[in-house]
Q: What sequence folds into this?
């Protein structure tokens, strides 16, 4: 069943047809179908909000904003329509959603005004306060969100006491989750943890056997930010609560508990991008990073985690042709200073995923002006440059940003590094080398050079040289001396 | 960002959606429940598109003071003269101002989103910006002292003229702050409590339990009034005894009200109550003692006066705020930004697509963000 649905997702999103599936492809296809089939307000609204959120996690903020704008227009239309029909509960709900959409669009002041208007009409409804809290979280106002969430939880507890039932139990869990999220953001981690443990325990209790059976029957697994119905709400809430709990444990250094929560999430859905990224971060394993990138190649936080990982894993390779693998190759090339390779790979990704924020950020990183190595600023005559210094030199040459004075200083500079040559020719106790690398930075001579003595290729040798220039990702060197590395 | 806000999207919404009394004229009621025709839908859509352009703007609070009209917008505060045309001074403002509290000497512009208040001397325009507790939604001056209701901090804060500060805790969701007889009155919406606060000592003096989740709260010298939209009532608290003094049934979904008249020997104090569900403003009598009611009824019968004829005013859209300035009555539809002037028998549009305004003796003043100018209407 799940495979069939995934196949449908491929059909619905041809842009991804040639690559490994991205985890949110399925949710996006589902929401697009919902928008096409169901034209009532709530179906359309949740469709646009969920699509926007899914797009945002993939670095597609332009598409996300388009969805949020449509959600706002729907809600604004609905609130006026409700007001004309004298249906004030509907008006308050639509106003809350209009506020939420405005919050997602970054229109803070109007989002706040609409939120206030909604609670003027429906301050006795937990749902209204919960939407208020969500909007305040979007505006970066966690203290307001926490206060509103407390109101929502108090009202939901009242409702549950008056009418114990699955719907009210699920509602309470949703609001407790929102409260925990807001408390966590205000630094009240202890209370947040208690609430999240309470939520996950409650969801795993026999009270929800019926919903779990329903989910098993439907083979449902998709997670939405605006979930409809018991099954979808249950799946989404359990997923988010466990992820939130895992992040909380991770932030305080409790890796074992964090890993357990991430594994719980993956047990329900093996391609959850956040959980895979969490596991990769904790395990520092290239294999896990590969899985996380396949689930969502465009998560900026995953990109940054991977860049940190690459700093200590210089021999990392990325096999395959998935978007995740190609993204990792970009990052590996960047890490090695193969800027030309990185730019080429980025260009190809850009063609397939135009207007992507993460790709744009990486391009900006690549284009960021390289700093002048300190030995050039200090006017030194000898230096042992780092790989980073050499990459900066390549970038400065490629961008033609060295001043005449800096070029003169470079001409006078003699540098020494441990190098490895690619291949060796030999004749009359001379060894002939043409190219190699210094700490991952490629170099070549202007022509094959013969060195007195027998030297092995692919072995560390101490090379003293001057820099003549750079081409693409290679330095052009003039050798002065070669000796065995000590 | 995870929302998970709509787990119960499909839940029925019936709390206040249907007026529970037969107050709606049959024609209007039919319009509300009958399916719309194609042309009606098209017309609706057009009006929505027009409205969207205007209503996505943000409020710029305007206040009438004894020195002129104050408007807060775009990080500035301006005082204009009573015509609204001549600038007297301009001062630094706040990023997202929402409300203005005023006294004879000072104003306080409140920014509940940024948790800031800017207190400005009306005479000079000189002011100071203070950080407040979470979400300052209302302010009241008693003498030179400012009292701020900080809803999400669940606190009432006092800021003296010299800058000294003190704070007292309130219950959950304190929503309204009023002053009468030198005392402060809070309505704590989540708990359904009215609290009386003395200024010296600064402390909660008395409390009374009332209906929770009210949409408006006003006080006069003798009573506090609490608007309960769900129960379609206005609850009354006698401020002398701090005891409930009963309630008045009104409309289908009353949302807010203003004192329409102070009362005479023939009539009790009257309230103008906005009811957006019925698209009416109801004119009703406020609290009165049994003796007062008997005497007034006797006099009306004796000289043959009716009580307000039909007793209602009709509006094309549902109004949810009422303002009274002497003989001039105004009603506001916050959903469409339409301001009406009304009498007991008719209403007319004063301004459209506005968000905030002040009713002054010279007329109604509102800020037009499109042309960045204060307008006077009526």
A:
């Amino acid at each position: 069943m799940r495979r069939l649905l995934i196949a449908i997702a491929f059909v619905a999103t041809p842009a991804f047809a040639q690559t490994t599936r991205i985890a949110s492809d399925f949710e996006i296809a589902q929401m697009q179908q919902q928008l096409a089939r169901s034209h009532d307000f709530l179906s359309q609204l949740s469709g646009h909000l969920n699509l926007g959120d899914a797009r945002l996690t993939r670095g597609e903020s332009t598409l996300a904003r388009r969805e949020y704008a449509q959600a706002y227009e729907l809600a604004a239309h609905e609130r006026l329509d409700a007001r004309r029909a004298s249906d004030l509960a509907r008006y308050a709900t639509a106003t809350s959603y209009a506020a939420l959409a405005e919050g997602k669009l970054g229109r803070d002041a109007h989002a706040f005004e609409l939120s206030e208007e909604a609670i003027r009409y429906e301050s006795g409804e937990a749902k209204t306060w919960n939407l208020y809290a969500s909007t305040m979280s979007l505006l970066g106002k966690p203290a307001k969100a926490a206060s509103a969430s407390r109101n929502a939880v108090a009202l939901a507890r009242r409702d549950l006491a008056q009418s114990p039932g699955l719907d009210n139990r699920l509602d309470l869990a949703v609001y407790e989750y929102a409260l925990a999220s807001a408390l966590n953001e205000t630094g009240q981690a202890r209370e947040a943890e208690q609430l999240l443990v309470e939520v996950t325990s409650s969801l795993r209790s026999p009270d929800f056997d019926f919903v779990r059976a329903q989910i098993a029957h439907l083979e449902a697994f998709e997670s939405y930010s605006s979930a409809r119905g018991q099954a979808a709400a249950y799946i989404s809430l359990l997923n988010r609560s466990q992820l939130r709990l895992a992040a909380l444990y991770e932030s305080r250094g409790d890796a074992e508990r964090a890993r357990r929560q991430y594994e719980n999430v993956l047990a329900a859905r093996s391609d959850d991008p956040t959980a895979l990224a969490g596991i990769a971060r904790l395990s520092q394993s290239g294999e896990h990073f590969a899985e996380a990138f396949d689930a969502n190649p465009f998560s900026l936080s995953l990109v940054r985690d991977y860049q940190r990982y690459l700093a200590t894993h210089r021999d990392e390779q990325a096999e395959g042709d998935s978007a995740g693998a190609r993204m990792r190759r970009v990052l590996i090339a960047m890490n090695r200073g193969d800027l030309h390779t990185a730019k080429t790979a980025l260009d190809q990704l850009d063609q397939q995923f135009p207007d992507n924020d993460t790709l744009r950020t990486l391009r900006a990183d690549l284009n960021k002006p390289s700093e002048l190595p300190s030995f050039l600023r200090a006017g030194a005559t000898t230096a042992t440059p780092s790989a980073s210094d050499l990459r900066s030199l390549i970038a400065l040459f490629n961008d033609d940003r060295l001043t005449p004075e800096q070029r003169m200083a470079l001409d006078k500079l003699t540098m020494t590094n441990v190098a490895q040559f690619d291949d060796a020719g030999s004749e009359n106790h001379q060894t002939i080398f043409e190219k190699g690398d210094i700490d991952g930075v490629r170099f070549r001579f202007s022509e094959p050079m013969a060195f007195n003595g027998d030297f092995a290729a692919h072995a560390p040798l101490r090379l003293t040289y001057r820099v003549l220039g750079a081409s693409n990702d290679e330095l052009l060197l003039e050798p002065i001396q070669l000796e065995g590395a000590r | 960002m995870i929302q998970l806000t709509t787990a119960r999207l499909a839940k029925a919404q019936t709390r206040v959606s249907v007026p529970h009394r037969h107050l709606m004229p049959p024609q209007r009621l039919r319009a509300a429940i009958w399916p719309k025709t194609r042309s009606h839908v098209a017309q609706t859509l057009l009006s929505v598109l027009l409205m969207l352009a205007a209503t996505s703007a943000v409020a710029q609070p305007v206040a009438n003071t004894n020195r002129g009209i104050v408007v807060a917008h775009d990080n500035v505060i301006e005082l204009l003269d009573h015509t609204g045309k001549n600038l007297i001074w301009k001062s630094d403002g706040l990023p997202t101002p929402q409300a203005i509290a005023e006294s004879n000497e000072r104003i306080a512009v409140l920014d509940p989103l940024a948790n800031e208040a800017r207190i400005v001397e009306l005479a000079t325009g000189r002011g100071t910006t203070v950080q407040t507790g979470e979400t300052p939604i209302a302010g009241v001056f008693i003498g030179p002292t400012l009292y701020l209701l900080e809803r999400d901090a669940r606190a009432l804060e006092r800021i003296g003229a010299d800058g000294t500060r003190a704070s007292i805790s309130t219950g959950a969701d304190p929503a309204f702050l009023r002053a009468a007889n030198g005392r402060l009155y809070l309505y704590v919406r989540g708990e359904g409590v009215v609290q009386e606060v003395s200024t010296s000592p600064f402390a909660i003096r008395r409390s009374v339990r009332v209906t929770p989740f009210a949409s408006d709260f006003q006080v006069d010298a003798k009573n506090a009034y609490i608007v309960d939209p769900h129960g379609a009532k206005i609850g009354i608290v006698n401020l002398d005894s701090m005891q409930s003094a009963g309630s008045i049934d009104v409309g289908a979904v009353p949302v807010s009200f203003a004192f329409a008249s102070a009362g005479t020997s023939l009539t009790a104090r009257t309230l103008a109550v906005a009811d957006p569900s019925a698209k009416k403003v109801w004119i009703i009598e406020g609290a009165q003692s049994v003796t007062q009611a008997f005497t007034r009824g006797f006099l009306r019968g004796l000289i043959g006066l009716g009580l307000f004829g039909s007793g209602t005013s009709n509006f094309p859209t549902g109004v949810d705020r009422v303002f009274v300035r002497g003989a001039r009555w105004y009603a506001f539809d916050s959903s469409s930004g339409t301001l009406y002037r009304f009498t007991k028998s008719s209403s007319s549009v004063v301004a459209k697509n506005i968000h905030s305004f002040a009713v002054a003796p010279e007329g109604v003043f509102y800020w037009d963000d499109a042309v960045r100018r204060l307008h006077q209407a009526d």
Notes: The first strand of chain A starts at residue 382 and ends at 383.
